[in-house]
Structure formats: C-alpha cells, structure tokens
Amino acid sequence: MRCMVLIKATEKTEAGVLPTAEQMAAMDKFGEEMIEAGVVVLDGAGLKPTSKGARIVFSGGKPTVLDGPFAETKELVAGFSMIQVKSLAEAIELLSRGPFDGGEIVEIRPLYEAEDFA
C-alpha cells in the first residue's frame, strides 16, 4: 500500500524557519528506522512557505492566480513523504514514533491503486 504522509504547517514553517541540525539528525535517524522496519520511502521533501507559492482557483472554467501567503496554517502542508507499507495500521504505528515535537499534525492518506478500480 502506498501512502502520502502530509506534515501540516506550523507558524514556524510558514515563517520559513528551517529545522535545526539536531532536528535534521533526528529525522534522518527516524528515516533509517522506517527503512529497517521494511518501509519503502518512495519520495519526500519539505516545502517552502506559502509566501513563496501561489494558488490557481478555477471558477466558471476561468483561472485566478492568488499569490501567497495563505491563511489558516493548520490547513497548509509543510512537507510530505510517499511511503510503501503493508497497511495503514503499520503506517500509523511507525509514524506515531516520529521525531515530531513542535505541534505538528501528520496526516496519512492511502493512494488509490489499480485494484481499487477493478
């Protein structure tokens, strides 16, 4: 099962505060633990703050471009990982042990697979 892991934004991530060396080391260690547990990490990255991005909103078939930053930090994404696990329960168990300590919210969303459409 492939899952998208979304790390929700915080005030710090939206301010462009980068992780400390200690936080990066903890994330690297956690990534190694996930791999040792049999998780396949397909991709992942941190996202720049929404002040560096844009949205395209479609209404009546016409696009409107909105420059960031965007409100409602709790609805924004600061980073992601794409992982392959045996089950959602496994992803929850592993990610519950993650090096998160700054009020982060981690959302795990399974991807549709070909068999879902059979």
Radius of gyration: 16 Å
Q: What is the β-strand count?
A: 6
Determine the N-to-C terminus distance.
16 Å
Spans with pLDDT under 50 lasting ≥5 residues?
none
Helix content: 10-25%
| Oligomeric status | single chain
Q: How much of the residues is beta strand, in percent?
A: 25-35%
Q: State the helix count.
A: 3
Shape: flat
How does the helix and strand content classify structurally? alpha+beta
Label the CATH architecture. Answer: 2-Layer Sandwich
The succession of helices and strands, N to C, reads: EHHEEEEHE
Strand order of the largest sheet: 2-5-1-6
Instruction: Average the pLDDT over all residues and give the rounded result.
Output: 92
CATH superfamily: Dimeric alpha+beta barrel
How many structural domains in the coordinates? Answer: 1
Q: Which CATH class?
A: Alpha Beta
**Sheet having the most strands:** 4 strands, antiparallel
CATH-derived topology? Alpha-Beta Plaits
